[in-house]
Specification:
Layout: E1 5-8, E2 11-14, H1 27-37, E3 39-47, E4 53-59, H2 63-68, E5 71-74, E6 88-93, E7 99-100, E8 109-118, H3 129-144, E9 147-159, H4 183-195, E10 200-205, E11 211-216, E12 219-220, H5 221-241, E13 245-247, E14 261-269, E15 272-273, H6 286-306, H7 312-315, E16 328-329, E17 337-338, E18 352-354, H8 363-380, H9 397-402, H10 412-420, H11 423-449, H12 454-460
Parallel strand pairs: 3-8, 16-17
Antiparallel strand pairs: 1-2, 3-4, 5-6, 6-8, 7-8, 9-11, 9-12, 9-13, 9-14, 10-11, 14-15, 14-18, 17-18
Helix pairs in contact: 3-8, 3-11, 4-5, 6-8, 6-10, 8-11, 10-11
């Protein structure tokens, strides 16, 4: 990043710290910090295809070997990674992600680094979601000179335990003090994130009881994906310390809003936000309009990646603020894509907000497919339809049909069926992840559809 910029939804900030991603840039700097801080153990973090965080812990005596050669593990034991006959894999730490883990400091000092997953010959493994995002970002930089910046808003719930969704409060949007039992939890979470070098823009109680949101400050896409993974484990760790449970399940409670991950995004070329045009309609550049049109056109086929669980589609229904209809607007929050107007005329704050993703997705893959959809709009110069500034939820079916408003997939199987035919998603994820992701989701769907639910028993047992 040029001049150590930190891009915020509220503006562009400069910081004198050498690298806000980490305490270090190189393996030698990591080794120096490890010695200075008397670090005893290092967690080597990576994710599987579904975005579940994995870790292998090594002692400091193995750190040089990990940097130089990588540490071996059995890839066949990781979901979607490798067959048993090609299971030998390596994880090699990225020194720029080095960070002391604050919640593990009661005894020995522990740190973590995100890793690249490698084949035994040292080549990058095509089933590594983090590598796939890096490939997409490298291609964007090589072909256009752009850097992809993101600012996600992750919502989640606090419950008394993981077995029963019993809320801790009856608070609502922006409520404070006695109604918001999670104020202290959020504060401790923000402090822990800041201690790990993750900048927080805002935090507050969300609409549903016991629902909360912490917004991360704009960063480049790879850094942000790493931060989302870290954010999720920090939220859960702080909740555990307070004797409760935090979940990013998209729709854990019937009848109230589910949890989303609205993703603010923009493209920069050096210091210039290419989405901004002071003289353009809505102060959007043609590039921004094409990008939005790309998100709209390809939304159905990328939804299985941005909303990857069966439960995700319990959130994507009318009436609970989650987007269902494929429209865009500036101020209308019922649309799929919004162009926020908090700072009209300010170049650095101009961005596009994509509102359908949920916080349980794999961020490396979700960011990849959103970028691919937007860039398809730019490459092919898709025409942007007029904004929809009225509430789409209260429009009749005939009105929506007349205006050409389509809908997102209504279930995981519908979403997967669209993704299976998507050349765009296949190219963004690569054959390995594309095929294994779809296979995994079909297995999940089959397990779900043969299950007899409590709703079915209540609805049918006594009358059929």
């Amino acid at each position: 990043m040029q001049r150590n910029q930190i891009f915020s939804g509220r503006g562009l900030h400069h910081n004198g710290v050498k690298n806000m991603r980490s305490e270090a840039d190189t393996k030698d700097e990591v080794l120096e910090i490890v010695k200075k801080r008397d670090v005893k153990f290092i967690g080597l973090w990576f994710t599987d295809i579904l975005g579940r965080l994995k870790s292998v812990t090594i002692s400091v005596s193995e750190l040089r070997t990990a940097f130089d050669e990588g540490m071996g593990f059995d890839g066949s034991s990781i979901k979607g990674f490798a067959r048993i006959d090609e299971s030998d894999m390596l994880v090699k730490p990225d020194p720029t992600t080095f960070c002391i883990i604050p919640w593990r400091q009661n005894g020995d000092v522990v740190a973590r680094m995100f890793c690249d997953v490698l084949n035994p010959d040292g080549s990058h493994y095509e089933g590594d979601p983090r590598y796939i995002l890096k490939k997409n970002l490298d291609r964007l930089r090589e072909e256009y000179g752009y850097t992809f910046y993101l600012g996600p808003e992750l919502e989640y719930f606090y419950f008394k335990d993981e077995r029963n969704p019993e809320v801790l409060d009856e608070g609502g949007y922006f409520d404070l003090m006695t109604l918001d039992a999670g104020s202290d939890f959020r504060r401790d979470t923000v402090l822990m994130l800041e201690a790990m070098g993750i900048k927080v823009e805002a935090s507050h109680h969300e609409v549903a009881p016991s629902q909360h949101e912490i917004d991360l400050r704009y960063r480049d896409a790879l850094t942000m994906a790493d931060q989302v993974m870290t954010y999720r484990i920090v939220v859960k760790e702080v909740a555990k310390q307070h004797g409760c449970y935090a979940t990013f399940m998209p729709k854990p409670i019937f009848g109230v809003n589910g949890s989303g991950m609205h993703v603010h995004q923009s493209l920069f070329k050096g210091d210039k936000n290419v989405f901004f045009d002071r003289d353009g309609e809505y102060q959007l550049s043609e590039l921004a309009k094409w990008y939005i049109a790309g998100l709209l056109r390809h939304a159905p086929e990328i939804t299985s990646v941005t909303n990857q669980w069966i439960n995700s589609y319990k959130r994507l229904v009318p009436g609970y603020e989650a987007p269902v209809y494929i429209t865009w607007a500036r101020r209308n929050r019922s649309t799929l894509v919004r162009v926020p107007m908090y700072k009209p005329g300010k170049e650095e704050a101009t961005r596009v907000e994509y509102r359908s993703p949920d916080p349980a997705c794999n961020p490396y893959l979700a960011f990849s497919v959103m970028l691919a959809a937007g860039m398809a709009g730019i490459k092919n110069r898709y025409e942007l339809p007029p904004p929809t500034e009225k509430d789409v939820y209260i429009m009749s079916d005939d009105e929506r049909m007349r205006e050409g408003i389509k809908t997102l997939p209504g279930s995981l199987i519908e979403a997967i069926s669209l993704t299976k035919r998507s050349k765009l998603v296949r190219e963004a994820l690569g054959d390995h992840i594309f095929n294994n992701f779809i296979t995994s989701k079909l297995v999940e769907w089959d397990r779900y559809r043969v299950n007899v639910t409590e709703w079915e028993l209540k609805e049918y047992l006594s009358v059929l």
